[in-house]
Design a protein that fits this description.
By secondary structure, the chain is mainly alpha-helical. It has ten helices and two strands, in the order αααααββααααα.
């Protein structure tokens, strides 16, 4: 996706590399060399001399930066036949992959934080209505609701608020109520599939 956005001119790669250089663990020289290679992205012809002419680095420094970029997986070099001549070309797919991994990790972290926030919210409301802190066993039960995706978060909160003020409120009562409503709401074929799954799990 990152590569497609760049190739269709929706992504400013120079700004992105500058912004994320520390998280990508790129040195200043490596960033400069990468940016220069991206300027020649369509042609893909690799030449240390050509890079050196465009930036204020010696050919030795450029060579070291290129070696590090290759070792880190940002850059690969290959030979390609053009007009019956072998030409050295570069491939920056690794750079796109590294950036993608970085942002996918960010997205996963945001999802994890939201997930933990939902569990925390449920626990807080439960403890409010129960008038006590949940035991470790009760905490495991609540977490299982989310880990196993047994009930939607909104359904859990709604049902707590509905039956929480009642004198007979308990975690088991809440779970039974959620199970009953879930089973009633599911189509018969889904109920049958779940029943079959449970049978096979028990075997």
């Amino acid at each position: 996706m990152i590569q497609k956005l760049f190739e269709e001119h929706f992504l400013e790669i120079d700004a992105l590399l500058t912004k994320e250089s520390k998280r990508l663990r790129l040195s200043p020289n490596e960033v400069v060399v990468l940016k220069t290679l991206f300027q020649n992205y369509k042609r893909r012809t690799f030449s240390i001399l050509s890079i050196t002419r465009k930036i204020e680095l010696s050919s030795n420094d450029v060579g070291k930066a290129v070696d590090k970029l290759i070792n880190k997986g940002f850059l690969t070099l290959n030979l390609e036949t053009r007009n019956e001549k072998e030409v050295e070309v570069f491939d920056l797919t690794g750079t796109f992959d590294k950036i993608t991994e970085l942002y996918e990790s960010d997205i996963a972290e945001v999802k994890r934080e939201r997930y933990e926030s939902k569990i925390g919210q449920t626990i807080e409301i439960l403890e409010k209505h129960l008038g006590k802190a949940l035991s470790s066993h009760e905490l495991d039960i609540v977490r299982a609701w989310y880990d196993d995706q047994l009930y939607p978060h909104e359904a859990i909160l709604s049902k707590i608020e509905e039956i929480g003020p009642s004198g007979k409120f308990s975690l088991k009562f809440l779970e039974r109520t959620l199970n009953r409503e879930k089973f009633t709401a599911e189509p018969l074929d889904e109920q049958a599939e779940r029943a079959i799954d449970e049978i096979f799990k028990a075997i």
